[in-house]
Amino acid sequence: MAELSGVDLVPQAIVRRPISFFARKFGNFVEDHDDLDIYEGAAFNLDDDLCFAMKRYRGYPADTTTIYLPNEIRTVDEIAAVISRILKELEISQSFLEWQRADGPDL
Question: In total, how many domains does the chain have?
Fold first, then answer.
Protein backbone atom coordinates (compact mmCIF):
# COMPACT_ATOMS: atom_id res chain seq x y z
CA MET A 1 0.00 0.00 0.00
CA ALA A 2 2.89 2.26 -0.80
CA GLU A 3 0.71 4.79 -2.64
CA LEU A 4 -0.98 5.64 0.68
CA SER A 5 2.15 5.63 2.80
CA GLY A 6 2.26 8.79 4.85
CA VAL A 7 -1.49 9.40 4.42
CA ASP A 8 -3.46 9.49 7.67
CA LEU A 9 -6.37 7.08 7.10
CA VAL A 10 -9.54 6.81 9.20
CA PRO A 11 -12.02 3.89 9.19
CA GLN A 12 -15.27 5.28 7.79
CA ALA A 13 -17.37 2.28 6.74
CA ILE A 14 -17.67 -1.49 7.13
CA VAL A 15 -18.93 -3.66 4.29
CA ARG A 16 -20.37 -7.15 4.79
CA ARG A 17 -18.09 -8.75 2.24
CA PRO A 18 -14.98 -10.75 3.08
CA ILE A 19 -11.63 -9.34 2.08
CA SER A 20 -11.25 -12.38 -0.20
CA PHE A 21 -14.21 -11.11 -2.28
CA PHE A 22 -12.31 -7.91 -3.09
CA ALA A 23 -8.97 -9.69 -3.47
CA ARG A 24 -10.42 -12.03 -6.10
CA LYS A 25 -12.13 -9.15 -7.90
CA PHE A 26 -9.21 -6.70 -7.88
CA GLY A 27 -6.18 -8.87 -7.21
CA ASN A 28 -3.94 -6.23 -5.64
CA PHE A 29 -4.36 -7.08 -1.93
CA VAL A 30 -1.33 -7.63 0.26
CA GLU A 31 -0.67 -8.77 3.78
CA ASP A 32 1.11 -6.07 5.75
CA HIS A 33 1.27 -4.57 9.22
CA ASP A 34 1.15 -1.22 10.90
CA ASP A 35 1.22 0.05 14.48
CA LEU A 36 -2.10 -1.69 15.20
CA ASP A 37 -1.64 -5.22 13.86
CA ILE A 38 -1.33 -7.41 10.77
CA TYR A 39 -3.90 -6.78 8.05
CA GLU A 40 -4.84 -7.70 4.51
CA GLY A 41 -5.55 -4.69 2.36
CA ALA A 42 -5.21 -2.68 -0.78
CA ALA A 43 -5.08 0.96 -1.83
CA PHE A 44 -7.31 2.32 -4.57
CA ASN A 45 -7.74 5.48 -6.60
CA LEU A 46 -11.03 6.58 -8.12
CA ASP A 47 -10.69 8.86 -11.12
CA ASP A 48 -7.19 9.77 -9.91
CA ASP A 49 -8.68 12.22 -7.38
CA LEU A 50 -9.80 10.02 -4.50
CA CYS A 51 -7.59 7.55 -2.71
CA PHE A 52 -8.85 5.09 -0.13
CA ALA A 53 -7.90 1.76 1.40
CA MET A 54 -9.77 -1.43 2.15
CA LYS A 55 -8.45 -3.49 5.06
CA ARG A 56 -9.24 -6.38 7.33
CA TYR A 57 -7.17 -6.66 10.48
CA ARG A 58 -6.42 -10.00 12.07
CA GLY A 59 -9.19 -10.75 14.56
CA TYR A 60 -11.86 -8.72 12.77
CA PRO A 61 -14.90 -10.65 11.54
CA ALA A 62 -13.93 -12.70 8.48
CA ASP A 63 -16.96 -11.57 6.51
CA THR A 64 -16.28 -7.83 6.73
CA THR A 65 -13.96 -5.31 5.10
CA THR A 66 -13.35 -1.79 6.38
CA ILE A 67 -13.08 1.24 4.09
CA TYR A 68 -10.50 3.82 5.18
CA LEU A 69 -10.54 7.38 3.89
CA PRO A 70 -7.94 10.15 4.17
CA ASN A 71 -8.33 12.26 7.30
CA GLU A 72 -8.97 15.33 5.12
CA ILE A 73 -12.46 13.98 4.37
CA ARG A 74 -14.09 15.05 7.63
CA THR A 75 -17.75 16.01 7.50
CA VAL A 76 -20.37 13.29 7.87
CA ASP A 77 -22.09 14.38 4.65
CA GLU A 78 -18.82 14.32 2.69
CA ILE A 79 -17.88 10.92 4.12
CA ALA A 80 -21.32 9.47 3.27
CA ALA A 81 -21.08 10.80 -0.30
CA VAL A 82 -17.60 9.32 -0.79
CA ILE A 83 -18.64 5.94 0.66
CA SER A 84 -21.65 5.89 -1.67
CA ARG A 85 -19.39 6.68 -4.62
CA ILE A 86 -16.94 3.92 -3.64
CA LEU A 87 -19.72 1.35 -3.33
CA LYS A 88 -21.11 2.36 -6.72
CA GLU A 89 -17.70 2.16 -8.40
CA LEU A 90 -16.98 -1.23 -6.81
CA GLU A 91 -20.48 -2.45 -7.76
CA ILE A 92 -21.39 -3.22 -4.14
CA SER A 93 -25.02 -2.79 -3.11
CA GLN A 94 -25.77 -0.36 -0.28
CA SER A 95 -27.46 -3.32 1.42
CA PHE A 96 -23.97 -4.70 2.19
CA LEU A 97 -23.06 -1.58 4.14
CA GLU A 98 -22.82 -2.77 7.75
CA TRP A 99 -21.83 0.59 9.26
CA GLN A 100 -20.71 4.01 8.13
CA ARG A 101 -19.64 7.17 9.94
CA ALA A 102 -23.15 8.66 9.60
CA ASP A 103 -24.39 5.82 11.85
CA GLY A 104 -22.06 6.91 14.66
CA PRO A 105 -20.46 10.29 13.91
CA ASP A 106 -18.95 10.60 17.40
CA LEU A 107 -17.07 7.30 17.24
Answer: 1
CA distances from 47 to 70, 74, 79, 95 (A): 16, 20, 17, 24
What local confidence, expressed as pLDDT, does residue 22 receive? 87
Residues 6+ apart with CB under 8 A from 92: 15, 17
Rounded to a whole number, what is the distance in angstroms from the first to the last CA of the chain?
Answer: 25
Pairing relationship of beta strands 9-15 and 65-70 according to DSSP bridges: antiparallel
Strands 38-46 and 65-70: unpaired
Bridge partners (DSSP) listed for residue 62? none
pLDDT of residue 26: 84
Range of the structural domain that residue 64 is part of: 2-103
Query: Based on C-alpha coordinates, what's the Rg of the chain?
Result: 13
Q: Which residues contact 27 (CB under 8 A, 6 or more apart)?
A: none
pTM: 0.90
Q: How confident is the model over 4-58, as pLDDT tens digits?
A: 566 789 999 999 999 999 888 887 889 998 888 999 999 888 877 889 999 999 9
